């Protein structure tokens, strides 16, 4: 199923390159936006929060980032009315395989999957 807009949030350029390349090859997104910090991503989402056509349907989110981590981002994201209306889903994409991180991620109903980096095409098959 193709998504109109996918947002990648990760502070690592190499991970962003791999994830972007994998999503492009799998052709699951018409548009991919990359933000290097959770703060930058929230600022961006704030500018499009009323636009269902532009707001991402899918967000790939890292956990460990400077200034604001992935969980703090989720705490803010779930306040967006468009997210409350279930227009957007989050896939955690992290280098962490810590069970505490996995359990914590699934405390958010918006989180649909937890994956360990790097993203591979097979990981996208059941989206």
From TrEMBL:
Record keywords, A-Z: Phosphoprotein
Any matching Pfam family: Response_reg
Positions of the Response regulatory domain: 5-127
PROSITE patterns: RESPONSE_REGULATORY
Modified residues (4-aspartylphosphate): 62
KW Ribosomal protein (keyword) present: no
Coiled-coil annotated spans: none
InterPro entries for this protein: Sig_transdc_resp-reg_receiver, TCS_response_regulator
Name assigned to this protein: Response regulator
């Amino acid at each position: 199923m193709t998504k109109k807009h996918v947002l990648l949030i990760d502070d690592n350029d190499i991970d962003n390159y791999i994830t972007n390349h994998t999503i492009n090859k799998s052709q699951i997104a018409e548009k991919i936006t990359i933000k290097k910090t959770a703060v930058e991503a929230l600022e961006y989402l704030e500018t499009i929060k009323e636009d269902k056509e532009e707001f991402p349907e899918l967000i790939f989110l890292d956990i460990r980032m400077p200034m604001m981590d992935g969980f703090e981002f989720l705490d803010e994201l779930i306040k967006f009315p468009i997210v409350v209306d279930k227009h957007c889903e989050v896939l955690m994409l992290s280098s962490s395989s810590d069970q505490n991180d996995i359990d914590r991620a699934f405390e958010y109903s918006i989180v649909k999957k937890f994956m360990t980096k790097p993203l591979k095409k097979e990981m996208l098959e059941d989206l």
